[in-house]
Amino acid sequence: MAKLELINLNKTFTPRIVPVKDISLSVEDGEVLTLLGPSGCGKSTVLRMIAGLEEPTKGQILIGGRDVTYLKPGDRNIAMVFQSYALYPHMTVYDNLCAGLRLKKVPQDEIDRRITEVSHILGLDDLMQRKPGQLSGGQRQRVAVGRALVRRSDVFLLDEPLSNLDALLREHVRADLKQIFSAQNAPVVYVTHDQTEAMTLSTQVAVLNNGYVQQLDAPENIYNHPANQFVAGFVGSPQMNLLTLPCQGNHALLGDFKIPLPDLPTPPPSVVLGIRPDHIHLLEADESTDRPILKGKVFLVENLGMNNLVSIRIPNSQGKAIVLRALLPPATWANRELTFTLPPELTHWFNVQSGDALVRRS
How many CB atoms lie within 10 A of CB 213? Predict the structure, then answer.
């Protein structure tokens, strides 16, 4: 197999339309790199440049040390799974799987061996004589993945392959893909805007925004140690609380409550505090703590099934209440006064101007 490298990649359509500004990253054999970000962040353009469907304006694309930047798609030995499946409607599942191999003039016995192996992995054995119109969405997606796997390519590319499936089916196919990826020894680049897919499938996640990589890291580090305010707000559901607060000395003022700042060379005039709803610690009546204690009143409860997402209004003497959301166990929370703390080891601090994390924990 072959390592994939992107070096200072740029794609410029017009002076005002630059979807990919400067991206450098690498994917080793056996790694799954997910390009995660909102619509328009440049992730699909990056994938299309790797595939050879778009030509970079600047930069290099290397596969196994070979410069493929300006090679045609057919000369790169890559396989791609599209969002729309892209199956031949007049062909059976078997013929769809082997179409690419026949074009490459692979011997028939080798074609049969590869298809048998892949059909066992994907559970397609009973579907080989059906046509795409006779398949469910999940079955079509497995055929599209199978067509990529039989190619034995150097790099596998997947462009939002689950976005056309309903939630339950997406969960099942996602589990299938995770097992398939773990059995491959090739770089995999997966594009999605769904953070659940990114967190569950990847060995590395690149969070993109406005044409740049905001953070490239393991999924758990993306979630627990976001590099900046954008990553913190984009990754995680429910979304992280991000509050712009004034500072007084070495404390941030959250309503009428003081939250100690981390050790900084010079305390800023204001700061962005980040805390995930599931990290807010509700204090029991008899519980004591040496952490700053906050109080607020619940004004909205959203039932999420296993938990309730409650919105808490924290008053201050100036009459401008601050809203904080907390993820709590099911109970009768409406209009209750709550006492809680923000665990300092789970609290994030960001620069108001740049959005960068003030403290990076490892």
Answer: 22
